[in-house]
Specification:
The complex is a heterodimer of chains A (288) and B (271).
Chain A lengths: L1 H26 L7 E6 L4 H14 L4 E7 L1 H9 L5 E4 L5 H9 L5 E14 L7 E3 H8 L17 E5 L4 H9 L11 E3 L2 H10 L3 E6 L9 E2 L1 E3 L11 H5 L6 E8 L5 H10 L2 H10 L2 E2 L3
Parallel strand pairs in A: 1-2, 1-3, 5-10, 6-7, 6-8
Antiparallel strand pairs in A: 3-11, 4-8, 4-9, 4-11, 4-12
Helix pairs in contact in A: 2-10
Chain B lengths: L1 H23 L9 E2 L7 E2 L2 H32 L2 H15 L3 H19 L8 H25 L3 H9 L4 H12 L1 H17 L2 H6 L17 H9 L7 H31 L3
Antiparallel strand pairs in B: 1-2
Classes of the chains: A alpha/beta (288), B mainly alpha (271).
């Protein structure tokens, strides 16, 4: 009997302490918003979650919720005022700018990184550059032999990422102009596996974030926007100045000049620590 | 209890896949093109995935069964006790290699080897996948068949020898038939691992969803499809429900395999 009583007392005590702690927390009236929402680009979901996690770790008590849905969804949410920050892998369209004016919003734009996609081949492949058109034709199996694009005779073996990857969707949208990959394109589970395979296959071709080409296991091709344009190498400088054709800025948008937590978070993204995370996730940082 | 769990799994998978059957119909299973993410036209034909799984499994069986059974016979009947002490732990260790590690080994070593031996465009194909799967099934086949062979009563063999049969004759005509139920069970268990294996296959088969029975072509298995796509699929979409339907098909396949194994076991049961 006595032990049960003692048990009850302990439980009650724990309950009271917990209750008190909970009330104490609630009692702190927030000086500013302690939670914000980020919505938008699926490509950027990973990056934004990493940034949000790092920020929350450094600033306990602040909550940042990140959801995807696509750049368009994010922008619509921002215009409707249902999200604090919109992550977008494209700039606002004219229509969206018009909509914002109608709602008397003045969206602020921040670029937190660049996304550059390199087209990789085996280092022994004599081909150094391709036009965007040629790349598209290769991945849609309209060109199947390297000799048709200036290389040695040999059947082209195309490698893509799995369909769950943001890179896959981006490549499909911007290089294949929303067309489909050919059926016999091999789908690799990771960019690392893709690079490993290309390093042993002379006739292989694949794509991935430009950072994967730095080790020298594969050769990143120079890309020409069209047949007459200059061939541009996918190095950080060319990605940054926009001359490399398969790259895009990663934007954050707010409905008006950001303040409070939203401003602090955007500042964090552009801080050396935030930019370090941008590089870790596989994008090109815009500052330092 | 375990029956209840299996029934619940079936029920859950079935419930999640019904919306797909309602919107696309069962005939979609036999459509040829699997293209779940597309700006133009999403297609959920599963025939290529089914043939992919079948091809890899069949090839793996062709490689694993002769190797496994012959090794088991050797270890059980011919090897000296010292050899046996060395081989058994080595084989059991092979069984313990995680499939990701085996997959990486396949990607770095087996795929380039297959490519250069057969003069192919790429080493990422059904054959490479089958070799890795055979490596996984062989330890199971050896361990269980060896037990079965060693459990054949000594009196059977002695009777055979006393009739003047040689050692090889005894093994093929007496010992192996007597242990057949155990060997079949071993093969079926090995096959079970092969059909359900995901990671190693996903890393080396190339995962292109094409219908082919050519071992040097890239294939996409059902398990690899579910594993690769489930993580990012929008919840409640057609694609999501289609993946569950693949799960149902996969479960039915292993179920059928087990039923056949049971039948075979009954038929050959000795005594």
């Amino acid at each position: 009997m006595r032990s049960i009583t003692r048990y009850a007392v302990v439980v009650a005590a724990i309950g009271l302490i917990a209750l008190g702690w909970g009330c104490g927390k609630k009692a702190e009236v927030p000086a500013e918003k302690t939670s914000i929402d980020i919505k938008g680009s699926d490509t950027m979901v990973n990056l934004m979650s990493e940034l949000a996690e790092a920020y929350m770790k450094a600033n306990p008590g602040k909550q940042i919720a990140v959801t995807g849905g696509g750049s368009g969804t994010g922008i619509a949410a921002m215009l409707n005022g249902t999200t604090d920050i919109c992550a977008s892998s494209r700039a606002l369209s004219e229509k969206e700018v018009g909509l914002a004016k109608e709602k008397q919003l003045t969206p602020s734009e921040f670029v937190i990184g660049m996304d550059g996609l390199a087209v990789f081949v085996n280092p022994a492949n004599p081909v150094d550059s391709l036009t965007l058109e040629q790349v598209k034709n290769i991945f849609q199996a309209q060109v199947t032999d390297w000799k048709d694009v200036g290389g040695n005779a040999g059947k082209i073996v195309a490698h893509s990422r799995e369909s769950n990857s943001g890179t896959y969707v981006y490549f499909k949208e911007h290089v294949l102009n929303k067309g489909d990959f050919a059926n016999d394109v091999r789908l690799m589970t990771s960019t690392a596996a893709l690079v490993q395979e290309l390093s042993t296959n002379v006739n292989g071709i694949g794509y991935g974030g430009e950072a994967y080409g730095k080790e020298g296991k594969v050769k990143a091709l120079k890309i020409k926007k069209d047949a007459n344009a200059a061939a541009v190498a996918p190095v950080e400088a060319n990605v940054l100045n926009g001359s490399y054709p398969i790259s895009r800025p990663l934007f954050l948008y707010t409905g008006s000049m950001p303040s409070g937590l939203a401003k602090k978070f955007i500042d964090f993204c552009n801080s050396p620590q935030g930019q370090g995370i941008v590089r870790e996730v596989g994008y090109v940082p815009v500052k330092g | 209890m375990s029956i209840l769990i299996v029934a619940l799994v079936f029920l859950f998978l079935g419930r999640e896949s019904i919306p797909f059957v309602q919107s696309h119909g069962l005939s979609e299973i036999f459509n040829e093109i699997w293209r779940p993410v597309s700006f133009e036209n999403e297609q959920f034909g599963m025939l290529a995935l089914i043939t992919g799984s079948l091809l890899v499994t069949l090839l793996a069986t062709i490689i694993a069964v002769p190797f496994g059974v012959v090794s088991a016979i050797y270890i059980a009947e011919m090897a000296s006790p010292i050899e046996r002490e060395i081989w058994k732990p080595v084989i059991e260790m092979l069984a313990g290699i995680p499939s990701v590690v085996l997959g990486f080994f396949g990607l770095v070593v087996v795929a380039p080897l297959v490519k250069s031996v057969f003069h192919l465009d790429s080493g990422l194909n059904a054959l490479t996948g089958a070799i890795l799967l055979a490596l996984m099934a062989i330890p199971t086949i050896i361990t269980i068949s060896e037990d079965a062979i060693r459990n054949v009563p000594q009196s059977y063999k002695e009777a055979s020898y006393s009739l003047g049969a040689s050692k090889l004759q005894t093994i093929w005509k007496v010992t192996v038939p007597a242990a057949l139920s155990g060997i079949v069970a071993a093969v079926m268990l090995g096959l079970g691992r092969v059909v359900g294996e995901t990671m190693a296959v996903m890393m080396v088969t190339g995962n292109a969803a094409v219908i082919t029975f050519d071992p040097t072509q890239s294939v996409r298995t059902m398990t690899a499809t579910v594993a690769a796509e489930m993580g990012e699929v929008p919840f409640g979409s057609d694609h999501y429900h289609a993946l569950f339907l693949i799960g149902v098909l996969l479960l039915m396949m292993t179920f059928a395999l087990n039923m056949v194994a049971q039948r075979v076991l009954k038929k050959y049961r000795i005594g």
